[in-house]
Specification:
The protein is an all-alpha fold. The protein contains 18 helices and 4 strands. The strands form 2 sheets. Strands 1-4 form a two-stranded parallel ribbon. A hairpin with a 4-residue loop joins β2 (74-77) and β3.
Length: 441
């Protein structure tokens, strides 16, 4: 029997027990973890939006000269190869906190989260991979046709989860937890892809001695943390800075060191008297609890403040759509993301036993696919790595901002049309008539 068309009528009862609904409600433990992550990312998304707006205002007023002066101001330790501009300290240094938190999140998802189970991970992985491949192909097609530089193919691949959840906080406060979990997991897989792309394709000439020193520092980090169980921050902070500095001088992008250290943290929770794991008690969980607010509330906004300041005059916007590189980025994010994420999700449902949750429709998937087109932080970072020309970088940044804004606006319209349905689902999920703080469902 051919697989059922997703969303097309009732499901055969004889097969319903074998089918897993798409965007179904996560377990109670996953919902608690999701709620905590969403609170942090949502607040971070609001701060990120404020920082991006501040950068745009600062760069497009009579104070624009001071913006450029601050952004290009150099300081550091030249003898150690660390004489960087403020802009590069933000992208190569401060943003490492973001990647460190991302590394911890990746480790948890792979060990204890949705990604540990192939059946549960298949849908967001397929959607994320399609959502990275199609934008890259759209960029390549646009630039092959227009004679542009092909090095920017990875710019439209990433989804900015903080920005996307910030938009959800404004227009989709009652979005069902299943859809939120899908978006969060999709963005995590996106992060894995972006990290691999940065490490493999945007690495300059390697300094093997510095790279070897950085890897040795990571091994020492692991031995101290896991084998010797050393817990003093005063040990790890100098070690982390050393690993970061060596990674920077090796030619591999320095933020990769943050991901590596995050994934090396122990995720093993302690046990209660009954032998059950205590949620949030692992070293990785405790470190993330302290670092994630710094990442979302400081590191990413600082990066945005010095990366998002581009000219928004009529001429500058026109140039964005005339240059093949920036046009490819815009089309990749705004068109490629929705085609990739929606198409990947549909095909995964069409050719597997998964089916769409009866309470939802494929228009909900379209709204989430549009949110995936918000590619702010990592897209801006890759744009800086992919192009040497300052003017091309500015045009690409403008394209990232415009595409993210357009994706957010269309997603808002699509999600708002279903708000009444989402509210009913959310009220059912959170109903607590016996007031025991545990949802009755």
């Amino acid at each position: 029997m051919p697989p059922p068309v997703p969303g097309a009528g009732p499901v055969d009862p004889s097969r319903s027990s074998q089918q897993r609904p798409l965007f179904s409600r996560p377990s109670a433990r996953e919902r608690r973890r999701l709620a905590e992550a969403l609170r942090t990312e949502t607040v971070g998304g609001m701060v990120l939006l404020a920082a991006a707006l501040a950068a745009l205002i600062w760069a497009n007023t009579p104070l624009s000269d001071s913006y450029e002066a601050v952004r290009s101001f150099h300081f550091g330790v030249p003898a150690l190869g660390l004489d960087l501009s403020v802009e590069h300290w933000a992208s190569d240094g401060v943003l490492t906190l973001f990647f460190f938190a991302a590394g911890i999140e990746l480790k948890r998802e792979l060990v204890r989260g949705e990604l540990r189970r192939p059946a549960a991970a298949a849908l967001p992985v397929v959607a994320a991979v399609s959502g990275m491949a199609v934008p890259a192909l759209v960029y390549l097609a646009t630039n092959i046709a227009g004679g542009g530089q092909l090095s920017g193919w990875a710019v439209p691949m990433a989804t900015d989860i903080a920005f996307a959840l910030g938009v959800l906080a404004i227009v989709g406060a009652h979005l069902p937890s299943g859809i939120r979990a899908f978006l969060l997991t999709l963005a995590i897989v996106d992060d894995i892809g972006a990290i691999l792309v940065i490490a493999v394709f945007y690495t300059s000439t390697l300094n093997l001695a510095a790279l070897g020193g950085s890897l040795a520092g990571l091994v020492l980090f692991r031995v101290l943390h896991v084998n010797l169980k050393v817990r003093g921050w005063y040990v790890y902070l100098p070690l982390a800075v050393t690993v970061w500095a060596l990674m920077y001088n090796s030619g591999v992008h320095a933020t990769v060191s943050g991901v590596a250290m995050g994934m090396l943290l122990s995720g093993r929770p302690r046990k209660d008297p009954d032998g059950e794991p205590v949620e949030g008690s692992s070293p990785a969980d405790r470190v993330e609890h302290r670092v994630r607010p710094l990442s979302a509330g400081f590191a990413v906004p600082v990066f945005a403040l010095f990366a998002a300041g581009v000219g928004v005059s009529g001429a500058a916007l026109a140039d964005t759509f005339r240059q093949p590189e920036s046009l490819g980025v815009f089309l990749g994010l705004f068109v490629g993301k929705i085609v990739g994420v929606f198409g990947g999700t549909y095909l995964a449902a069409r050719f597997t036993r998964a089916r769409l949750d009866p309470a939802l429709s494929w228009s909900d998937v379209t709204g989430i696919a549009m949110l995936a087109g918000i590619g702010f932080t990592v897209s801006l970072l890759v744009g800086e790595l992919a192009f040497d020309s300052a003017s091309t970088q500015e045009h690409v940044k403008g394209a990232v901002l415009l595409a993210s804004l357009a994706s957010a606006l269309v997603a808002c319209v699509l999600l708002r049309t279903r708000n009444a349905k989402y509210r009913a689902l959310w009220e059912e999920e959170t109903r607590d008539e016996d007031r025991d703080t545990v949802p009755d469902i």
